[in-house]
Amino acid sequence: MIVPDTKWTPELTRGTRAKYQALAEAIREGIVSGQLTAGSKLPPVRELAYRVGVTPGTVARAYSLVTDEGRLVAEVGRGTYVASPKRAQAVQDVPLINDVDESTADFRSSRVPDVGQGLLIDDAMMKVATSHRRRHINYPTDQTDLEAREALVGWLDGIDLGAFSSDDITLANGAQNACLLTLMAVLSGPAPVILCEELAYPGVRHAARLLRAKVVGVAMDDDGIIPEALEHAYRNHGGQVLLTVADVHSPTTITTPMARKKAIAAVARKLNLTIIEDDCYGTGRSSTPSYRALLPEQAYYISSLTKSISGALRFGFAVAPQDHGAALRYVGQSAHYGVSQPITDVCTNLINSGVAAKIRTNVAEVVEARVRHTVNVLGRWDLKWRVDAPFVWLTMPQGWRASSFMAACEAHDILIKAADEFVLPDGRAPNAVRLAIGTCVSEHRFRAALDEINRLLAEPSGRIDN
Predict the structure, then answer these.
(1) Is the pLDDT of residue 55 over 60?
(2) Handedness of CA 249, 252, 258, 261 (dihedral sign)
(3) CA atoms of 440 and 366, how far apart (whole Å)
(4) Which one, of 231, 237, 291, lies nearest residue 265 by Cα?
(5) Taking all residues of the chain, what is their mean pLDDT, rounded to a whole number?
(6) Residue 2 pLDDT more than 50?
(7) What is the structure's pLDDT at 92?
């Protein structure tokens, strides 16, 4: 359908504002008054410039400003239109949380193995409840969460973060929330850009969509992000932040080695890119310094207790760059007034008592045992793994496509994630799947499911996607 240009001609009021701002205000008033109805096409830039007596650049700038506000829609080759007043439906994406069904071998989500931490958390709650500290009434503050931040300094003792203290730490409701807070602290402008690995945890897409940011994938190899590709992506798309998982990358299990980290840090320093390092799968020990240690003035480190203690606690944190701690805590306060004080106190008790460390050790032992069993069963296939990563990355053998293999597994009550779920918009999915070994089924069901996966991999006939 061809929509003719509207004959609307605005009257620019005189004042101290720039002409493009006055024209933008006139467009807004035209939309509100009904002179410009939803779907109507605005005059071409040069035509309106002639009518109003301004330069085409002034009109283009006004159109761009009102388009960024969502009141206009610009379509390449067709023109600029008044946007519909209806709010856009939220774009559906893969869920970040899957329902727990103990009758199904669910290899989709990286759940924490049950090592009895539920009862230990209950015990910590009872101790907090009987402490009579009387601070579970008012809003949390920098003072009431200071004890937790000080406890985290010790908790992070095995990670090289450079010089830091409790003043640099901001509490969050899990690592995903910490990621959002740091992005809110860094991103600015009407069209921010986030750079990240070309294969990324779906939470990256969710965070970008919430912040109305564009996410651009950066090419990877077996050592992680390629420094030259990072610079190329920046030159072509811009970007204010690199969001990266350098220690235990999901879904590939890749660890970025020291030499590569230094090269990436050098690119970030040259381009003035902030780095946010997500270490949610961290085990409390790292063989290489964090980006915050390499770039103390422009790198954040985020993690949580979710993957090592319990996903139910929703307790995460971010270590800000030097002299940015107070500013990040202000962002957190603006976003959610702070983390729940009872949860903060329970997690502090778990850390200070040493219980959290024992749980982390026990979880790591179960993860290692399950990974080793997985490798024993599936070792003849193209498998990437490490004993401290709660998932493996399986490239499909000849005759299988990830999508059809996922459907074949589901027919046997086995749920897995295809590589498609980790691909960014405009990206290409490798022919692979991720298997998270933290499924909540019994050990017997877990082993039986792996045997079934192994059998299916060996029998692709009749299931090839040509």
Answers:
(1) yes
(2) negative
(3) 12
(4) 291
(5) 90
(6) no
(7) 59
Report the amino acid identity of residue 206.
Answer: H
- Count how many Cα atoms sit within 13 Å of the Cα of residue 12 in the half-sphere of its side chain: 20
pLDDT in tens, 95-121: 776 676 667 899 998 889 999 999 999
Q: Which helix (H) or strand (E) holds 448?
A: helix 443-458
Contacts 24+ apart (CB under 8 A), 96-102: 96/176, 96/202, 96/203, 96/206, 98/415, 100/440, 102/440, 102/441
CA distance 114 to 121: 12
Helices (H), 187-226: 203-210
| Share of residues in the chain with pLDDT > 90 (%) | 68
CA-CA-CA-CA dihedral for 179, 181, 186, 188, to nearest 10:
110
Q: What single-letter amino acid sits at 458?
A: A
Q: Which distant-in-sequence residues (6+ apart) come within 8 Å of 326 by Cβ? A: 167
Give tens-digit pLDDT for 340-350: 999 999 999 99
How do the residues of the chain divide into helix, strand and coil, expressed in percent and rounded to 5? 40, 15, 45
DSSP letter string, 6-40? P-----PPPSSS-HHHHHHHHHHHHHHHTSS-TTP
- Looking at residue 10, its pLDDT comes to 83
Q: Which of 47, 58, 3, 8 is nearest to 28 (CA)?
A: 8
Reduced 3-state DSSP string for 319-343: ECCCCCHHHHHHHHHHHHCCCCHHH
Judge whether residue 370 has pLDDT over 80: yes
Q: Which pLDDT score, from 0 to 100, does residue 189 have?
A: 86
What is the dihedral sign for C-alpha 237, 238, 244, 246? positive
